[in-house]
Specification:
The protein is an alpha+beta fold. The protein has a domain at about 5-25 and about 105-210. The chain has 8 helices and 4 strands. The protein has helices at about 5-10, 15-20, 30-45, 70-95, 100-105, 110, 135-150, 190-210, and strands spanning about 115-120, 120-125, 165-170, 175-180. A 4-stranded antiparallel sheet has the order 1-2-4-3. Strand 1 (about 115-120) and strand 2 form a beta hairpin. Helix 4 packs antiparallel against helix 7 (about 135-150).
């Protein structure tokens, strides 16, 4: 079994600012919430009384009149957010198919990692052969990334949830190696912190499942 100490030693190097910079954008749940907010605002605006009706200071509309429809703007923004949410759900359906939630909600890295090491632009993680072939593992990681974009839980410590992440996997009968890289050098410590987090979570998971 490969040791994980070299990577765990870097776990505290990343800053909160790096984590925010690496965000992959609003989740489907965020888009739905924003759409509801815009739709409710549009409804309130539609009920808003005419400020100039019956007023002695009403403008002379024969001289000039300019306006914009804020209700239609709010409704347009609501539609845009709902479309974005639907696209993320479609991406999840494509990546995960009928995989059960109990499977897709746990990162394959957290499920199978047994060691790791930092690299210049990211980290290497070593997984047991039970992770499957490199192709199967890549498909599982893509599915987990798509699941995270639904926004059903906080995944701020998952290395697969970093923006601009590049992933490669290869292996043999001894195990699988996953390479995680980011082009943004400022995100490297954050990626290494997250990889170390998954290694620690994997160790705790194995300990909890071990026969007593």
């Amino acid at each position: 079994m490969r040791i994980l100490l070299p990577l765990l030693a870097l776990a505290a190097c990343a800053s909160p600012a790096a984590s925010q910079r690496g965000a992959r954008g609003p989740r489907a749940a965020d888009h739905v919430a924003a759409a509801d907010e815009h739709a409710q605002h549009a409804e309130r605006l539609a009920r808003w009384p005419d400020r100039f009706a019956g007023s002695s200071t009403a403008v002379d509309t024969a001289s000039w009149y300019r306006a914009w429809d804020t209700v239609s703007t709010e409704l347009r923004l609501a539609r845009q957010h709902r479309t974005a949410a639907a696209q993320l759900v479609a991406a999840y359906d494509e990546a995960c198919g009928d995989r059960p939630a109990s499977e897709v909600s746990i990162s394959p890295l957290e499920r199978y990692a047994v060691g790791g090491a930092p690299t210049e632009d990211g980290a290497l993680l070593f997984l047991v052969v039970e992770a499957g072939s490199p192709d199967e593992l890549m498909a599982a990681m893509r599915c987990h990334r798509a699941w995270m974009m639904l926004g059903r839980s906080d995944m701020g410590s998952c290395p697969l949830d970093l923006d601009g992440l590049r992933v490669a996997a290869w292996g043999d009968a001894a195990g699988i190696t996953v390479e995680l890289r980011v082009a943004d050098k400022l995100l490297v410590p954050e990626l290494q912190r997250r990889a170390a987090h998954d290694l620690e979570a994997a160790a705790q998971r194995r300990a909890a499942l071990a026969p007593r």
